[in-house]
From TrEMBL:
<feature type="domain" description="DNA replication/recombination mediator RecO N-terminal">
    <location>
        <begin position="1"/>
        <end position="79"/>
    </location>
</feature>
<protein>
    <recommendedName>
        <fullName>DNA repair protein RecO</fullName>
    </recommendedName>
</protein>
<dbReference type="InterPro" id="IPR037278">
    <property type="entry name" value="ARFGAP/RecO"/>
</dbReference>
<dbReference type="InterPro" id="IPR022572">
    <property type="entry name" value="DNA_rep/recomb_RecO_N"/>
</dbReference>
<dbReference type="InterPro" id="IPR042242">
    <property type="entry name" value="RecO_C"/>
</dbReference>
<keyword id="KW-0234">DNA repair</keyword>
<comment type="similarity">
    <text>Belongs to the RecO family.</text>
</comment>
<dbReference type="GO" id="GO:0043590">
    <property type="term" value="C:bacterial nucleoid"/>
</dbReference>
<dbReference type="GO" id="GO:0006302">
    <property type="term" value="P:double-strand break repair"/>
</dbReference>
<dbReference type="Pfam" id="PF11967">
    <property type="entry name" value="RecO_N"/>
</dbReference>
<dbReference type="InterPro" id="IPR012340">
    <property type="entry name" value="NA-bd_OB-fold"/>
</dbReference>
<dbReference type="GO" id="GO:0006310">
    <property type="term" value="P:DNA recombination"/>
</dbReference>
<dbReference type="Pfam" id="PF02565">
    <property type="entry name" value="RecO_C"/>
</dbReference>
<keyword id="KW-0233">DNA recombination</keyword>
<comment type="function">
    <text>Involved in DNA repair and RecF pathway recombination.</text>
</comment>
<dbReference type="InterPro" id="IPR003717">
    <property type="entry name" value="RecO"/>
</dbReference>
<keyword id="KW-0227">DNA damage</keyword>
């Protein structure tokens, strides 16, 4: 029975039995899987915070092939993101991003970029406070990395780049880009698509430095939320309280 290590952020946590807790991680090195921390809810030695949503942890676990979950031998809390959790908006943001990542990240697959994206988002907001710009940035980067969003913006009909057209549109229902030369568009989303392109091509700090308008950020996030629902088929429990709190409801 091999002993292995993992470092990652808790994206799912569930009480099990009288004193155990099941978690899964957006990890650096292994596929997404379930881990069980036995007795941690009654332990005086191991911090229960290490199994909270959003906690960055390091674990030693037994790789038991015949088990549905892996037993944790040791768990170390690296970062609880206390500063981010020190206000209500930050706490809701952390819960929202971990739930979103949990819905997007299939068990049995390895996506270390999601760990980098999640930890980078929490680090930035811990240091600078929550910014609405991080919502479309996180979602689009995650979708593109998982293969759910194209990184080249070509019209489905003519095959030409829609960013070079005077009018363009993203049909999230069909997951297609349309240009105004080939289609009668319900609206022009050229500005939003240029924003999408910028997100995919630059770091978050440079994206912020370009000062995208609040209306453009809100529209981009709204469209991406519709797109996410079509992919996951799920409504998120944390969605309504978080969006009401940030004034997007």
């Amino acid at each position: 029975m091999a002993l292995k290590k993992e470092r990652g952020i808790v994206i799912h946590s569930m009480d099990f039995g009288d004193s155990d807790r099941l978690i899964s991680l957006a990890g650096e090195n292994h596929i997404r899987m379930k881990f069980i921390s036995k007795g941690i809810r009654k332990s005086k030695r191991r911090p229960i915070a290490s199994t909270e949503l959003g906690s960055l942890v390091e674990i030693d676990f037994y790789d038991q092939a015949e088990k549905d979950w892996k037993s944790i031998k040791e768990i170390v809390l690296v970062n609880r993101y206390d500063h981010l959790k020190s206000n209500y908006t930050g706490t809701l943001f952390l819960m929202y991003l971990t739930e979103l990542t949990s819905h997007l990240y299939p068990e049995g697959e390895l996506h270390p970029f999601l760990h980098q994206l999640l930890s980078g988002s929490f680090d930035h907001c811990s240091e600078h406070g929550f910014r609405a710009e991080i919502l479309p940035f996180f979602k689009l980067r995650a979708l593109a990395n998982l293969g759910h969003f194209p990184t080249e913006f070509y019209c489905v009909s003519c095959g030409e780049e829609v960013l070079a057209k005077s009018r363009s549109f993203f049909s999230w229902e069909n997951r297609e880009f349309l240009c105004g030369d080939c289609h009668t568009l319900p609206k022009d989303q050229s500005s939003m698509l240029r924003l999408f392109h910028q997100i995919l091509k630059t770091r978050f700090s440079l994206f912020l430095a370009a000062r995208p308008g609040s209306d453009a950020i809100r529209e981009a996030d709204y469209v991406l939320n519709q797109y996410l629902r079509s992919i996951t088929g799920k409504e998120m429990k944390s969605y309504f309280e978080f969006y009401k709190t940030i004034g997007y409801s």
